[in-house]
Amino acid sequence: MPTNPTDAIDSVDRRRVLGQLLSVGAWAAAAGLTLAEFPSLLFAAAQSEWRMCGKCNMMFYAGYRRSRCPAGARHAAREGADFMLPYDVRETSNAQGAWRFCSKCESLFFDGYPAKGVCPAGGGHVAQGFVFVLPHDVSERGYSEKDWRFCQKCYSIFYNHTASKGRCAAGGAHVAQGFNFVLRFHGNLEGDVQLNPVRE
What we know:
This protein has one domain (5-191). Helix content is 11%, strand content 27%. The protein has helices at 14-30, 38-42, and strands at residues 46-52, 59-61, 83-86, 95-102, 108-110, 127-135, 144-151, 157-159, 176-184. The strands form 3 sheets. It has a 3-stranded antiparallel beta sheet with strand order 2-1-3, with no helix packed on it.
């Protein structure tokens, strides 16, 4: 690990990296991390390609282009935000862990209960990969979006800001419970934003 932060960015565009560090800094402050803990967060990872499905309102991983949607067929990403979900950081009073990728439906679900919710692919969700730590009940600022909620029926995270509340794998619409998550997405620094049409 370089001792001088500028050593790590000599070969890349400094303006874009600065924007990313500022975004990480905003996340750190929102999640309740102290200045002393901030350096470890700079080298912690965040996975992109997480998108909202325009059919069911669930968050899903769009990097594989497979998935299973409770509204039928595959998830279809809404145009716009490409979310960046942090992992390998500690939980705080405003950042909850145990959020996992489901290997069956490719959505994001809460894996902190013995039961595993209801998966659109049948049965409960199956956790795989990273353990994500999501900030909640903090101010919406910069490139972040609030109103992401845990569904008490299917255990997935869904966008609760629409009138319809999406489609739940347990039947009907999602039902919000618990924290109000605030999730970070790519900004528009140096073409960082990805505006893709809805795709299946």
